[in-house]
Amino acid sequence: MHSTMETITPGTGDFQDKPTHFPGTQVNGQPLKPITQVLLDRRATLHFKPDPVPAEYLEAILRFAAQAPSGYNLQPWRFIVVRDPKNRHRLQKAAMDQSKVSEAPVVIIAFAVKGEWKSRMDAIFEEGVRRGAGDAGIMEMQKASATKFLGAFPPDVWLNRHTMIALTTMMLVAEAYGLDTAPMEGFDADAVKREFSLPDESEVIALLAIGFGKGPDKPYGGRLALKGIVFNEHYGAPWNGESSP
To answer: Cα torsion for 89, 80, 41, 2, to the nearest 10°?
Structure first.
């Protein structure tokens, strides 16, 4: 295996710095896929080989997912990494018996805990000030503004939006490393919470299988043309590409 894996130095206390050392090639030693190729290649994988995901690659996928953007930098996502075959079998039962759950060597449970951001807010804002990304003089005002904003709509909406940003980041990084993924929304959330001891107030958002695909990729299904999904300046005005101002 050809990679450039080194220890990633953590930040102060419960915070980490940006990853600076991580595998520099795909698992098979080939160059990393550029982001444009990642976006064109990624498909939801139907079946997986039992081959394990190398630990340094799984760690890098998680590290980069943690770098995803979030409102007020509150990072509400939480992940359970499920690798034990017995636990994957239990998860499969809670996930409509989808075979990929027990086939893939790694399955991520993506969830968020309602209201947990409130207990993390002070530390996150203080860390931002310490790193020069905030102003101590207006920090209390910013926290009050964030609290007011987050209370303006249902918490599950905000949690889903931001956790899916992190989960999508995870999928794209895995593809760049030559790994395959399958996101899943078909599961019994209460069963997942029960089987994996999640808090009652948690929101189970998605499952993500990670590994090496077995068999050919799903055929490319095509995408809607831009003229059907992009508008120029206001709804109903067609987007004309380069001819648009």
So the answer is: -100
pTM of the model: 0.91
Where in the chain are the domains? Answer: 35-214
CA 5 to chain centre: 21
The mean pLDDT values, 10 residues at a time, for the chain of 245 residues are: 38 78 97 97 96 98 97 97 98 98 98 95 96 95 95 92 98 98 98 97 98 92 92 91 59
CATH second-level architecture of 35-214? 3-Layer(aba) Sandwich (3.40)
* Beta-bridge partner residues of 107: 82, 209
Q: How far apart are CA 109 and CA 123, in angstroms?
A: 25
Q: What is the DSSP string of 131-144?
A: TTSS-GGGHHHHHH
CA pair distance 67, 22, nearest whole angstrom: 14
